[in-house]
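Risk register update: the risk that structure generation would not scale has been downgraded. Supporting records follow, first protein first.
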Amino acid sequence: MAEPVSVDIPHKLGREAVRARIEGGIGKLADLFPGGSVTEHHWEGDTLSFTVSAMGQRVASRLELFDDRVHAVVDLPPFLGLFADKIRAKLQKDGPSLLR
């Protein structure tokens, strides 16, 4: 397993508003990966665990909601570990748009 990609995405919306926006745009999470699609997702308290299928790989991910930020962790399989820096950069750049 490659080193997980972790990113904090700041916001000023509050936990409930962020949760509603994430729930309304769950499909957008897969856009972080070329050809990706969300295959499963579930909430445990303020943490959304989901799996994205991309490039023949399954990527386990989670979003932990806080009042002022969302902490995203993407557990990349070894093959996709080669793209960790690009995925981190895309998440930092496009992550805030997922909350709009």
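Supporting record for the second protein:
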Amino acid sequence: MTGPAINSVAWFEFGTGRPDKVKEFYGELFDWKYVLNTDTPAVTYHAVMPPGTQQPAGGVWDSDGKFSDYAIFYVLVQDVDATVEHAESLGAEVLMAPVSDSAGLTFARLQDTAGNHFGVFSAPAP
């Protein structure tokens, strides 16, 4: 099985102050399992494992109530910095500048010209 294609939606994320409620609801609805991700210090993040998969498909970020709840999608891109720059040239607003975790995953969050929140990410080289 191959991974997701570049420029395709390849991840989703819930940011919530009530992660147990989110995990319980979607776990019951879709039989999702969750694995604690420790790649980003001081962040409580659970990877979502859909049934029959070996790789996570999304995540649940415990915000501790520090920001409003959200659900967004992420697009896999070749180069996060270049994509953010291109998005800005098209009128997007950068909500979170590109950051990398300890595993080498780089991501950023943007707002499109219609006000929608979305993210882009790139995976570390194998």
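Strands lie at 9-16, 33-37, 44-49, 58-62, 70-76, 93-100, 106-111, 117-122. On this basis the risk owner (M.S.) recommends closing the item.
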